[in-house]
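#onboarding

Welcome to the new folks! Below is a worked example of what a typical request in this channel looks like: someone posts a single protein sequence, and someone else replies with the predicted structure as tokens. Don't worry about understanding the tokens yet, we'll cover that in week two.

Example request:
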Amino acid sequence: MPVLPQPLYQRPLHLFNGHAETIVPSLFRKVQGVPYTRERLELADGDFLDLDWLRNGQKRVAIISHGLEGSSDRHYVKSMARYLGQHGWDVLAWNCRSCSGEMNRLPRLYHHGATDDLSAVIDHARLKHYDTVALVGFSMGGSLTLKYLGEHGLNVPPEISAAVAFSVPCHLGSSARELDKPGKAFYRDRFLKKLKKKMIEKAARFPDLISVRHIDTIRTFADFDNAYTAPLHGFTHAEDFYQRASSGQYLAGIRKPVLIVNAENDPFLPKECYPVDLAQQHDFVHLEIPTRGGHVGFSLHGKSYSWMDQRALLFLG
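Example response:
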């Protein structure tokens, strides 16, 4: 314990494998009826984060962290925000630097290990005098959530009650290499296209610091992370980044109830991303491995919400 039994998730029949479960909702799912109110949080380093709120006058708030190249506007974030908002929570869906629709001010971006920004968001939410703060993260946002809780351990703010993380690449290097495999490069190339576009914009702003002269030669996450992520964020190289930013090494330090849900058929996750041995010996880290679900998928037939929304509410409740 706490490796939990496989939950009763049944995918829609037309989503016949992990790729379909991942791609179809990502490309085609639309979520309506989420009336965010935006707030800009100015950071101590001169940059900013854009925060999107759903306020219902509750005394508890769920802070939602999106995935790589996502935002508060992604279907999975809006669905979770709407569902929790309908069930007694205020919601704060925050956007990583450069992800809110406006480029951030500094040369740096964001990455899987950048818990300084999540910490700033949590501290800001605590100023609103909530009795309870819960954390929800998807993919990279799940990595940030777990790393934050593990880093702080017993010093996590007392208002934080629990966290849920879906589709988490707990071991970054293995996950990056998984997406180099034949049949999975579609995902990698889609991410890289967006990231390269941002770096071209950054280079125009900071030509003395960032060069895109060889950006067309970048083919893998390791290429990109060696060229940009590592030097811009204080890492020696890509492998140094993967080692130091991976959330898996911080799980042992977690002292708040956490649920990690990684589908067995997630095309992004190799075996290193399923911390079974640790969860079996940990009092706070709960692990569920549904047979189906894909990567941030978990669609439900004929429902406006997803199984992730239901599962998070049940655990956080």
